[in-house]
Amino acid sequence: MNLNPAELIWAAMQARQHAYAPYSNYAVGAAVLTEDGEVFPGCNVENAAYPATICAERVALTAAVAHGKRRFVAIAVVTRNGGSPCGACRQVMIELGPDMVVYIADETGAYRTTTVRALLPDGFDNASLLA
Ligand code: THU
Question: Exposed (0-12), middle (13-18) or buried (19+): which is 105, by Cβ within 10 Å?
Answer without folding.
Answer: buried
